[in-house]
Amino acid sequence: MMQKIAYAHDKCIDSQLLVFNVVALFEHRQLDIDTLLRGTQIFKQDLQQVEYHISPLQLGKLIDNALRMWPGNDLAFLLGQQWLPSQSGHLTNGLLCCKHLLQMQVFWQRHHWHCQPWLQGWRWRSGQSNHLLLQLDLGCHRHRRFFIELTLSSLVSSYKRLSRHQWQGQFALPFPKPNSVDQYYKYLGESLLFDQPVCVVSYDSKMNQQQFEMANRQGYLQANHLISQKQSQSKYQIGLPGAIRRLLLESCDNQYSLPAVAMQLSLSPATLKRRLKEYQLTFQQLQDEANLQKAIYLLAISGENNLNVAKRLNFADGNNFRRSFKRWTGQLPSQFKYWLAQN
C-alpha cells in the first residue's frame, strides 16, 4: 500500500525540529532573524505553535537564507551536534533508551519521517562490515551537501553520547572535497572519501552490539509504540521523490516507466512531471539514482559481474550498462566491485 505522499507545497515538515533549531542558533549568534525568514512565509510567532508544519519549498528557501548568512562553513555540523538533545518527547526517549547502534538505526529508519524526513536509508552488509546508504527525499538535491553534513554529524554525535565511545567508521561522500575540510575532520573524523557515487557510512559490524549506557527495553518499546501510533495518523509519510525511488528500487524487471509510475501514484504523466519540476527534479534523475543504487548493490554486495548486472537492470548488453555507469559516476563498474569491501 502506497504511503501518504507529500508534494513540494504540502506542509509536511515539523517546524519544532530543524527549523526551530536554525532560528535558535541564529538568535544565539545575534544574526538577523527577519532576514533569515525572508521569503519563506514562515513567521517567528508561527514557531511557537506545537503543530506548526512547513513545506519542502519553504525549507529550501530557509536553508538558502541560512547558508548565505552564516559566517562560516560549519552550520550543518553544529545543528547535527544538537540533533539528539533537540528532538522532542518520544523521539528523544526512544533514542536514549536504545540498546545499541543497530537498534538506534532501526528506530531511526522506522521513524525518520518525524525527525529527518529529507532522507531515505538502506542498510547493507558485506563480510564483517555494515553499510548505511543514504539518499535524499523531499527533493533537497540543491542542498545535498548540507543535509548529508547534518545527518552524519547527528549520527556521530548521537553515537558518542549514547555509547561514550568515539565513532569508528568511514564516510563515502558524494561531492568534491571542500576547502573547509577541517570541519569534516573535527566532526566526523579523518576516514573520509570524497567524490563518491553515493553517500555510504561503513563500519565494523562489532559496533552494532556495543551496549549503550542508558539502554532501557521498556522505555524503547513504549516510545516506539507511541510514535508508531502518531505515524499512523500522520497526513504524510514520504515525499514524492522518495516514493518514486522506492517504486523504482522495488521493481523486479526494472521496467517502471514514467507512465507506469504515474499510474501507480494515481497521477497523469503530465501531472507527475509538473510535481517533480516543483522539486527541481526529473524522472530521469530519479531513475538514474535508482539504477546506480541497484548496480552498486549487485556489484559490491552480491558480487555479480557486469553482464549479470546489465541483465538484471534490463540493459541491452554489457557495453550499454558500462556506458551508463560511467555517465552516472565518471568511472567504470569494475572499479566498484570491491568498493565497499575497502571501506
Report on the architecture of this protein:
It is a single chain. The chain starts with a strand and ends with a helix. It has 17 helices and nine strands. The chain has three domains: about 1-70, no CATH class; about 75-235, no CATH class; about 240-340, Arc Repressor Mutant, subunit A. With about 350 residues, the protein is α/β, with parallel strands linked by helices. The strands form three sheets. It has a five-stranded mixed sheet with strand order 4-5-8-6-7. A two-stranded parallel sheet has the order 1-9. A two-stranded antiparallel sheet has the order 2-3.
How many DSSP helices? 17
Helix content: 40-55%
- What is the terminal separation in angstroms? 36 Å
Main sheet, how many strands, which sense, barrel? Answer: 5 strands, mixed
Mean pLDDT: 91
Unreliable runs, pLDDT <50, ≥5 residues? none
In quaternary terms, these chains amount to single chain
Question: Layout of SSEs?
Answer:
Blueprint: E1 5-6, E2 13-14, H1 18-28, H2 33-37, E3 53-54, H3 56-69, H4 75-81, H5 83-86, H6 89-96, H7 101-111, E4 119-126, E5 129-136, H8 144-163, E6 170-172, H9 181-188, E7 192-193, E8 199-204, H10 217-233, E9 238-239, H11 240-250, H12 258-264, H13 269-278, H14 283-301, H15 306-312, H16 318-329, H17 339-342
Parallel strand pairs: 1-9, 6-7
Antiparallel strand pairs: 2-3, 4-5, 5-8, 6-8
Helix pairs in contact: 4-8, 6-10, 11-14, 15-16
